[in-house]
Automatic annotation (TrEMBL):
Presence of the UniProt keyword Lipoprotein in the record: no
Gene Ontology molecular function terms on file: transmembrane signaling receptor activity
Protein name, UniProt field: Methyl-accepting chemotaxis protein
Presence of keyword Transmembrane helix: yes
GO biological process: chemotaxis; signal transduction
TM stretches of this protein: 15-37, 193-211
Organism ancestry: Bacteria, Bacillati, Actinomycetota, Actinomycetes, Geodermatophilales
Alphabetical keyword list: Membrane, Transducer, Transmembrane, Transmembrane helix
The organism of origin for this protein: Blastococcus haudaquaticus
Family: Belongs to the methyl-accepting chemotaxis (MCP) protein family.
Pfam families for the chain: HAMP, MCPsignal
Gene3D superfamilies: Methyl-accepting chemotaxis protein
Residue stretches making up the HAMP domain: 213-265
Occurrences of domain Methyl-accepting transducer (ranges): 270-513
Length: 528
């Protein structure tokens, strides 16, 4: 029951328990260590106090001797002078120091033994100091009386010297006890710390082992199942019943494997059925492809014949259309010829009148040319006279001579031009007479053409009607033949497409069959 409870705890709780155990062990270790350090500190304080008191005991012994030295100095001084004054001052200082040491020793109350020893020696100290104070004071007034009192002082000195070691022994015993106690406390603290640390490590190791075992063991089981799954084994089981994260993961894994087993079973059955169906479908597709191929061949033959018929009919249609176009063109040309002939007759008449007018104009031009020729001759004579006069004028007439010479040259060129124009006008007059005669002959020929054109137009009109009817019939035949060829072509195309589609279907069926075989092989890799 306890194991089941622990196994069902979440990983966070298990890890928290491990951390809590570590924190608890650390807390206990800290508490014990702090207590041990506190005790060690107390013992250390005792050792320090005992060391200080030991110093005070030594100082008290020194004051014991110093007071006697002060008494002897006062006696030797004779009760006067600086030596006596120094003895009085030193005694006062040493007396106060001695009394302070004893008071502090009682106030410290380190131990009953030490306090008892201090109390035991205190009367002797008081007697000793009182005797010293008395002798020094007496030495200032009566040195002889002070000398007589010295034996009593020496007795007090000896008594105190006998009792002071008892106080030193008590303090030494206390110091040794404090040191021993400090060592014992330190050893105990170290031992307790080691024990607690070992116990904490042991608890943490045990709890860590429990936590690790509760996590790593199930994870190894899950890993083993996953390794089997990687090799195609779907029959594995983790056998984990805990409800922590690892248990939930194992449950999810087993549920997934169960689903995969069901899916693989269904895929295996489906792949077998698919392989059988693809075999049947492949046989049917091969038959359909064969029939489609035969239909395609026959359709091709019929389509070729229909194309030939359509081509022939279209050729006849094109020929008749061309003939009709030729006849229409002839009729149009004949009509155009008739119109042109009429225009030619009119143009010939106009041309005759124009040519006659041209002859008259050429005569007028000849008269104008004669006038220009006469002016050019006169200008030439004037230029010649001007040249002669310029020569007579000498140097002053050189510029005028140049101008006269240029005028003469222009007159000569004008004369030449008028001669040329005269020759051309004579030629025009001669050509005009010939043109008038030719135009007369052309007008006669055009009249004959116009008469023959009527007969041609009537014959063309009849031929146009016949050709139009023939073109209509041939066009209808061409359209029908073309439609037949198109339909047969469509049938051939459809048959070819069917053949191609069946070829593609056969390839697809083969691919499906291959995939079914591959799928079956893939499923066969798994064990379920």
């Amino acid at each position: 029951m306890a194991r089941s409870f622990w196994s069902d705890r979440p990983l966070g709780v298990k890890l928290a328990a491990l951390v809590a155990a570590g924190a608890g062990a650390l807390g206990v270790f800290a508490v014990v260590t702090v207590g041990a350090l506190q005790d060690t500190g107390d013992r250390t304080d005792e050792v320090l106090a005992s060391a200080e008191l030991t110093g005070d005991v030594l100082l008290a012994d020194m004051m014991h001797d110093a007071v006697r030295a002060d008494v002897l100095q006062a006696l030797l001084s004779g009760g006067t002078g600086d030596l006596y004054s120094s003895a009085v001052a030193d005694l006062a200082e040493h007396d106060a120091t001695f009394r302070d040491i004893m008071a502090e020793a009682l106030a410290d109350d380190l131990s009953p033994e030490v306090t008892a020893s201090v109390r035991a020696v205190t009367p002797a100290v008081e007697d000793y100091l009182a005797s010293a104070d008395s002798i020094v004071a007496t030495a200032g007034a009566d040195p002889a009386a002070a000398g007589r009192a010295y034996p009593a002082f020496a007795t007090a000195f000896s008594a105190l010297e006998d009792e002071l070691p008892a106080m030193g022994d008590a303090v030494t015993a206390y110091a040794e006890a404090a040191a021993t106690s400090s060592r014992d406390e330190r050893s105990t603290a170290i031992t307790e710390a080691l024990v607690i640390a070992a116990a904490g490590v042991l608890v943490l190791a045990l709890l860590g082992w429990v936590v690790t075992r509760s996590v790593v063991g199930p994870l190894n089981q899950v890993r083993a199942v996953l390794a089997g799954l990687a090799e195609g084994d779907l029959r594995g089981s983790t056998d984990i019943t805990s409800h922590d994260e690892v248990g939930q993961m194992a449950a999810s894994l087993e549920a997934s494997m169960s689903n995969v087993r069901a899916v693989m079973t269904a895929i295996g059955d489906s792949s077998t059925t698919l392989a059988s169906a693809t075999e049947q479908l492949s046989a049917s597709a091969q038959d359909m492809a064969r029939l489609a191929g035969e239909s395609s061949v026959q359709s091709g033959i019929v389509a070729a014949a229909a194309d030939q018929v359509s081509t022939n009919v279209q050729t006849v249609s094109a020929g008749s259309e061309q003939m009709g176009a030729s006849i229409r063109e002839i009729a149009q040309n004949a009509s155009e010829v008739s119109r042109v002939a009429a225009q030619a007759v009119h143009a010939a008449d106009s041309t005759t009148a124009t040519v006659a007018k041209l002859g008259e104009s050429s005569v007028e031009i000849a008269g104008v040319v004669k006038v220009i020729t006469s002016i050019a001759e006169q200008t030439n004579l004037l230029a010649l006279n001007a040249t002669i006069e310029a020569a007579r004028a000498g140097e002053a007439g050189k510029g005028f001579a140049v101008v006269a010479n240029e005028v003469k040259e222009l007159a000569q060129e004008t004369a030449k031009a008028t001669q040329d124009i005269t020759a051309r006008v004579l030629a025009i007059q001669s050509d005009t007479e010939g043109a008038v005669q030719a135009i007369g002959e052309i007008s006669s020929i055009i009249g004959q053409i116009n008469d023959s054109q009527g007969t041609i137009a009537a014959a063309v009109e009849e031929q146009t009607a016949t050709t139009t009817e023939m073109n209509r019939n041939v066009a209808e035949a061409a359209v029908s033949a073309s439609r037949i060829a198109e339909n047969i072509g469509a049938v051939a195309t459809a048959t070819t497409s069917t053949t191609r589609a069946m070829t593609d279907a056969q390839a697809a069926i083969d691919e499906v069959a291959r995939m079914a075989t591959s799928l079956h092989s893939s499923v066969a890799r798994f064990r379920y």
